[in-house]
Amino acid sequence: MTVLLAIGTRKGLWLARSDDRRTWTVGEPHLLAQEVAAVCVDTRRPRPRILAGIQYGHWGPSVVRSDDLGGSWQETESGAIRFPEDTAAALARVWQLRPDTADRPDVVWAGCEPHSLWRSIDGGCSFSLVRGLWDHPHRPTWEPGAGGGAVHTVLPDPGTDRVTVAMSTGGVYVSEDGATGWTPRNRGISAVFLPDPPEYGQCVHKVAVDAGDPARMYAQNHFGVFRTDDGGGSWTSIAEGLPADFGFPIAASPSTPGTAWVVPLVADMQRVPPDGRLRVHRTRDAGGTWTEVGEGLPDAAWTTVLRDAFCVDDVDPTGLYLGTRDGCVYASADEGDTFTLVADHLPDVLAVRAVRLP
Amino acid sequence: MTVQVVLPGALADLAGGTRHVDVEVDPGGSTLADLLDALAARHPTLGRRIRDETGRVRRFVNVYVDGEDVRWQGGPGTAVRDGATVQVLPSVAGG
């Protein structure tokens, strides 16, 4: 078994491989000097396809793809993501690229800035704007967070037409009809920057789905960690037991119900690990209790793990992957108990994704 | 009429490997926007590097018509004469 780890950074993409998830071979940079804020590896195809949402710096954002694991890169000539003329909008950044489920093999979702959701039915070569969300009456009031206003999380449900998105800000919205109609589902999620708990407008940093029940989801919020058991109908705090309730990523096990991980940071005004100790916190009971794990992660690490710089693989036991803004990447082959260093001295890590190569 | 577009080296590959592109523009359309439309029709990816999908020149791209920065001229409506030289340059930005 070979695991491929794609590492998107502020200045390029690196691909690392491992047969045991403890020792890694890191290749030469791809897309050097270009920001890679979103990356995915679509293993549903006969040959895995890497999709990368890049920013050329001076020359604007784009989506590029490789069907030979980085040997060559292609770009749709007219642009894979292009706002229709009537929107008078322009793509600012691709924040999320998410292959749909195995039974929808050509469908890929993209979450972008400005707040927008896109769907491809040709494997990511071209995307169409999801009008239901773009035309939502709430959209003009979704404010940009510090990084920009974006759909950064897209969660298609494997068994139904449900699609869940999360935005900073905006919060969680759910469609039950394949992305046509959308309703906010933020009840119980705090918004400390607003005077009253709103229906929408929360700054939800990341959402992950439980392995056992697609209606159970976990959210790392801009202050607060929450769980829903009813598809977002209501959320309850599961932050008790964590050293801090701020942070960006959250990940759930793809195979073990009730298991999820967060990477706490002190606060929004102090985006560093508590006491400088970079650690992962794991729950085995859907947020009832948390345990600090992460032997091998550094102390005196005054850095940040961004929302997509943390992911899991689908190997048993689950592997965890974590990248920092100071260019270090760590991997765990034992569900977070221990980590080994994959790479260091990279540019700021923006996104990591790990897959088992066929 | 014919206008010569001078590209930075970073964009030459998108124009077939040359930094100098002669673009034919309908004499009826003689603005920078018309010129960039014609350039994008020949080289769509190059067109996207210079302008976003609303037609705005990207923030960190500078365009000069006969040596004059179009931001201080007419923007996309800047007049372009037959035989003009239009230079595309990346601004001082990045890190």
Describe the structure concisely.
Chain A is mostly beta strands and 358 residues long. Chain A has one helix at 131-134; strands at residues 3-9, 12-18, 25-26, 35-42, 49-55, 61-66, 74-75, 93-99, 108-113, 116-120, 128-129, 150-156, 163-168, 171-175, 183-184, 204-209, 217-221, 225-228, 236-237, 250-252, 260-262, 280-283, 291-293, 310-312, 320-323, 329-332, 340-343, 349-356.
Provide an overview of this structure.
The complex is a heterodimer of chains A (358) and B (95). Chain A has 358 residues and is mainly β. Chain A has 1 helix and 28 strands. In chain A, the strands form 7 sheets. In chain A, strands 3-2-1-28 form a 4-stranded antiparallel β-sheet, with no helix packed on it. In chain A, a hairpin with a 7-residue loop joins strand 20 (250-252) and strand 21. The longest helix of chain A is centred in the middle third of the chain and has 4 residues, at 131-134. Chain A is globular, with a radius of gyration of 19 Å. By secondary structure, chain B is of the alpha+beta class. Chain B has 2 helices and 5 strands. Chain B has helices spanning 32-42, 44-50, and strands at residues 2-6, 20-24, 61-65, 68-69, 85-90. In chain B, strands 2-1-5-3-4 form a 5-stranded mixed β-sheet, covered by helices on one side. In chain B, strand 3 (61-65) and strand 4 form a beta hairpin. In chain B, helix 1 packs across helix 2 (44-50). The longest helix of chain B is centred in the middle third of the chain and has 11 residues, at 32-42. Chain A binds chain B through residues 56-60, 62, 75, 77-79, 82-83, 85, 88-91, and chain B through 10-11, 44-45, 48-50, 52-54, 56, 58, 60-61, 90-91, 93-94.
Helices, strands, pairings?
The complex is a heterodimer of chains A (358) and B (95).
Chain A: E1 3-9, E2 12-18, E3 25-26, E4 35-42, E5 49-55, E6 61-66, E7 74-75, E8 93-99, E9 108-113, E10 116-120, E11 128-129, H1 131-134, E12 150-156, E13 163-168, E14 171-175, E15 183-184, E16 204-209, E17 217-221, E18 225-228, E19 236-237, E20 250-252, E21 260-262, E22 280-283, E23 291-293, E24 310-312, E25 320-323, E26 329-332, E27 340-343, E28 349-356
Chain B: E1 2-6, E2 20-24, H1 32-42, H2 44-50, E3 61-65, E4 68-69, E5 85-90
Parallel strand pairs in B: 1-5
Antiparallel strand pairs in B: 1-2, 3-4, 3-5
